[in-house]
From TrEMBL:
Any one Gene Ontology molecular-function term assigned to this protein's record: oxidoreductase activity, acting on the aldehyde or oxo group of donors, NAD or NADP as acceptor
Active site, UniProt feature: E181
Species in which this protein is naturally found: Aquilegia coerulea (Rocky mountain columbine)
Pfam families xref list: Aldedh
Protein name stated in the entry: Aldehyde dehydrogenase domain-containing protein
């Protein structure tokens, strides 16, 4: 695994480039946090591989016991297209450390990095048959994994709709263990005491980064009434300076959406927003002569019953809302079927503690957003799924616990 990590570092440009041409991701961004996370994940879990151990059990009476933690077996990873290389290692690294063999199916939109990473696995000396990559479409290749009788576990990242199909297929086949990292509609709550410029930068990054194609996108932004007007004005100004274009160009901040289907879906949500009575503060249409580029879009005058606030759009579309009190912010932030991430911007420690404990989401970013590290567990509440990627918790997904019980002295039988 250490050798594998070194090979990732040596091929960082290539991986970043493949992600850029496959997914329209910024080459600059791919080179830095995403791809660095890949080798970091491998090293983190390589360090964990020899620290997997069981417990001794005192039991009662004449018996004692211990537990073994064993690899869960053959793992099927089915992943999405928005973070092709990072997601590959979020799945593969802990499963390898747990001692599993695996089949990974990348999204049909973005097979290149997965194939390249399979090649690097071979160069790193990982035995044949341990890390396998199968490309193909979801209903065929993905479904073959989720319904396979000899696959023991499926670890999925993708939409909530497909997550449901995966659970059904697992239930109808061999009851394989399932973990799901699904959609989100994450709130970012900005309080009156926040530095407005910093809060605007954080909120724009939270939803426009990676052209909004992020399950953790902070697409519902709640701003307290005292700074709301100032925030709106600055957000509009800054969104207009956000450069949309060629993902390879170092000056670009937002590349094209992944494909035509996604492009059209986002534009149809923007139309829904306009027709539903929301006010378009900025953006609102496709840009450029060709390619699937969409302007960074901000809606104001939105309410929680609108589809643009309820549904995951997976594009550069922010809904900006005003609130008065902490209680109201908590209630509205929680008024979603999802629970993946949330952001809080304030310098008030009491507010941080209260809100972070009250929001039902798997990760809370305070005065920051989109910060990931291999030791930081990631995964949702509610319809954002269950089971953690990253951290020592992710290892548990790929391990079984077996109890062994013996008599202390002579066998009573
Ligand atoms: P998105 O909505 O982000 O495109 P999807 O949930 O459609 O995400 O796809 C995520 C992954 O799930 C992809 O690898 C895709 O091929 C796969 N997939 C899609 N449909 C199915 C299915 N019926 N069974 C298993 N995997 C599927």
């Amino acid at each position: 695994m250490m050798k594998y990590a070194d090979l990732i570092d040596e091929n960082i440009e290539e991986l970043g480039f493949l992600d850029a041409i496959d997914a329209g991701k910024l080459f600059r961004a791919s080179k830095s946090p995403d791809i660095h996370l890949c080798s970091h994940l491998l090293r983190y879990y390589a360090g964990a591989a020899d620290k997997i151990h069981g417990e001794t059990l005192k039991m009662s009476g004449e018996f004692q016991g211990y537990t073994l933690r064993e690899p869960i077996g053959v793992v099927g990873h089915i992943i999405a297209w928005n973070y092709p290389s990072g997601m590959f290692f979020m799945k593969v690294a802990p499963a390898l450390a747990a001692g599993c063999t695996m089949i990974l199916k990348p999204a049909e939109q973005t097979p290149l990095t997965a194939l390249f990473c399979a090649h690097l696995a071979k160069l790193a000396g990982i035995p044949d048959g341990v890390v396998n990559v199968v490309t193909g479409f979801g209903p065929k290749a993905g479904a073959a994994i989720s319904s396979h009788m000899d696959i023991d576990k499926v670890s999925f990242t993708g939409s909530t709709e497909v997550g449901r199909l995966i659970m059904q297929a697992a239930a109808q086949s061999n009851l394989k263990v399932v973990s799901l990292e699904l959609g989100g509609k994450s709130p970012v709550i900005i309080f009156d005491d926040a530095d407005v410029d910093m809060a605007v930068d954080l909120a724009l990054l939270g939803v426009f980064h990676n052209k909004g194609e992020m399950c953790i996108a902070g697409s519902r932004v709640y701003v307290q009434e005292g700074i709301y007007d100032k925030f709106v004005q600055k957000a509009a100004e800054k969104a207009k300076t956000w450069v949309v274009g060629d993902p390879i160009d170092p000056l670009t901040r937002q590349g094209p959406q992944v494909d035509k289907k996604q492009f059209e879906k986002i534009l149809s949500y923007i139309e829904l927003g306009k027709r539903g009575g929301a006010t378009l503060l900025t953006g609102g249409k496709a840009c450029g002569e060709k390619g699937y580029y969409i302007e960074p879009t901000i809606f104001t005058d939105v309410t929680e019953d609108m589809l643009i606030v309820k549904d995951e759009i997976f594009g550069p579309v922010m809904s900006l809302m005003k609130f008065k009190t902490v209680e109201e912010a908590i209630e509205r932030a929680n008024s979603t079927r999802y629970g993946l991430a949330a952001g809080i911007v304030t310098n008030n420690l009491n507010t941080v503690n209260r809100v972070s404990r009250s929001i039902r989401a798997g990760i809370i970013w305070v005065n920051c957003y989109l910060v990931f590290n291999p030791d930081c567990p990631f995964g949702g509440y509610k319809m954002s799924g269950f089971g953690k990627d990253m951290g020592m918790h992710a290892l548990e997904k790929y391990l079984h616990v077996k109890s062994v019980v013996t008599p202390i002295y002579n066998s009573p039988w």
